[in-house]
Amino acid sequence: MEGKEFRFLITKELAKQRVDKCVSSVEESLSRSYLQQLIEMNLVSVNGQSVKSSYQVKAGDEVCFVLPEPASMEVCPEEIPLDILYEDSDVIVVNKPKGMVVHPAAGHLSHTLVNALLYHCGKELSGINGVLRPGIVHRIDRDTTGSLIVCKNDFSHHEIAKQLKKHTVTRRYHAICQGILEEDEGTIRRSIGRHPTERIKMAVNEKNGKDAVTHFKVLQRFPACTYIECVLETGRTHQIRVHMASIGHPLLGDVLYSGGKPPMKLRGQTLHAKTLGFHHPRTGEYMELDAPLPEYFLHLLEILKERNFFF
């Protein structure tokens, strides 16, 4: 079966995981169940040999997986509850939950934000990004929670896209990073591009990357980690995750950029898109929406405050 082939090496941080879990954790567009299907079809191999889903990867293993040529994909509306922060005839701002993929892709044709939006908005979504990404003008990662703007028509899509390109959209995130940041605030200016050897990762890449700027401010320090606010000046893929890891303070729970098993069974990076500010595409009025911290994040902060938790 012909299709697109991907290869990557298992680092020591990714070792000792089931192969299906490992690949789905670092390639966020592929669900674990979809990986299991690929494994059953002998489209996933380790060191050139077919493996079972239960195979535990080791440092130095070369994992190869093949994505079959996509069949015609139909995206169906699904009655999935949406936490709506704002809505009018031009835009809708939602508070995306943890674990939800923004738009359909191979292995994620259902239960995405787009499926929920199609049910809620019907045909009132911009078509600029095609049938798989109606209304989607920017994204946040699967395990990142928080505010996301969706456009209901092509006019609003063009206007919001202009603001994103000019870096005039306010994007304020809350996160918990490993280790104790000594500076109360700072700015990270490091270009980001595709990792030179690991396709599934982004990396600081001064030669081939794009300019990326993240401003951070300490909100609270704990014995082994720091609660911070990050403001994006640019919006590169995995920007906050890559930038914080590059200064030795990866986000708590971020297996891809920190390595090791996440503490307290955290699922993915502790990152929340809290505040989103933009000029309304039709009226020009500046709007700022705030997404409350999710329950898991609040619970984690309470644990850190009460127990002086060390990792």
Please tag this protein with its features.
single chain; 311 residues; alpha+beta; Structural Genomics Hypothetical 15.5 Kd Protein In mrcA-pckA Intergenic Region, Chain A; Pseudouridine synthase; 9-stranded mixed β-sheet; 4-stranded antiparallel β-sheet; 20% helix
Largest sheet: 9 strands, mixed
Oligomer description: single chain
| Contiguous helical run count | 7
Run of helices and strands: EHHEEEEEHEHEEEEEEHHEEH
Please provide the count of β strands: 15
Helix content: 10-25%
- Number of separate domains: 3
CATH superfamily name of the largest domain?
A: Pseudouridine synthase
> What does the radius of gyration come to?
20 Å
CATH architecture of the largest domain: 2-Layer Sandwich
End-to-end CA span: 45 Å
Mass-distribution shape = globular
What is the SS-derived class?
alpha+beta
Beta-strand content: 25-35%
Q: Class of the largest domain, according to the CATH hierarchy?
A: Alpha Beta
Residue stretches low in confidence (pLDDT < 50, at least 5 long) are: none
Mean pLDDT comes to: 89
The CATH topology of the largest domain turns out to be: Pseudouridine synthase
